[in-house]
Amino acid sequence: MKALLRYVLGINRSMLVALSFALLIGLGTLLLMLPWANTNGQWRPVLDALFTATSASCVTGLAVLDTGRDLTLFGQLVLIVLIQIGGLGIMTITSLLSMGLGKRINIRQRLLIQESLNQDEPGGVLHITKNIVRYTLLMEAAFGTLLAVYFYKDMGAKAFYWGYWHAVSAFCNAGFDLMGHFASFVSLRDDIAVNLCFIVLITVGGIGFTVIEDVLAKRCWRKFTLHTKIVLSVNGLLLLGGTLLIWLLERGNNATVGELSAGQQLLAALFQSVSLRTAGFNTIDIASVGQGTLFIMMALMFIGASSTSTGGGIKTTTFAVLMASTFALLRGKKDVVLFRRRLDSAVINKSTSVFVLAVLWVATATFLLLVLDDKGQPLRFVLFEVFSAMGTVGMGVGITPQWNGWCKLVLILTMFIGRIGILTFSMSFFNKKTDRLRYPTENILIG
Q: Is the pLDDT of residue 330 over 50?
């Protein structure tokens, strides 16, 4: 027991964050395997339960089970609890419970919270933790009630269950739904009220809790932190650009939005542009979109949401830093400047590392799926599934249930990496060491 304790205490913080999610996934797998969780009353195969638990805990949304038809009420409740805990983060939940019981949070626990929230300093993490839970419950309760009231005329009392269930799934950017037949919200693509509720939930859940707190506290653009300015600017540009590109590319496609009115086309394009940033809901048939649209969708999924949010991807700030550093190099500038603030070289190096590691894993996962796949899936669909898993989006082209066991394991690992972060995952295998020896520099030719 003492040896185990010494081993746990010696594990680096990145590894502990990864292990906490692995523990949640393991527990979820066991619960989803139970006959009580499945409408057929039988034990669920372990691989399907593992895939579903991983997708829920990592707030992805890729599904091999029809949530609305294959899972009982118990199974659906297990799924939504996994989504809620996975979206908030296990460290956030355990810290909140400890504070509620009057226990002191020691420095090691603060460092773990800092690691899980991707914060630079451990100071103030408890304040952030409380606000994360406060904002989450407020948004889910408010929009869950709106959805329940809206659905009440058609569903009766069941509307409250549907409303709150989907509000949690949307705010946590999970993408799971109870509509059945893997159809997501295609039948509601012209419903403005429902679309707007989901757009707001996904957007607020994806910009990050630190941004929410900064906006509510300062309410003035000039007073916002550099992080908040970058997140809001990049999110706005990607949202607008994604909407316009999807609309322009798909307006003539009768299999998606071609037969809709101009207003309905723009609404559908807007919903997809928002959802692609890690939510995973869809109101059009993704398998029917053109190849150009698939490319735009994959790019949006790869960028993903923002830091300290419930979403995945390389993050909007990483994308902004990469673009800014590239343009600074092209213009011959020594400093990388955004909003009249110079970025530290450590931030630039970290952003580059995140991008390189993400590209390497996407390439690796795609290669493995192509080798292991026995169905001969098209390359564009395989790539789409990888980007969807890596960005914890969960939007699919209908091939997820068709993967064999080995392919499912590749996607499980990809979802896991996408949720905890490729950099956190990679660093979990290394212990940080201070360089005591510095070698002389020498230039090499680049480009």
A: yes
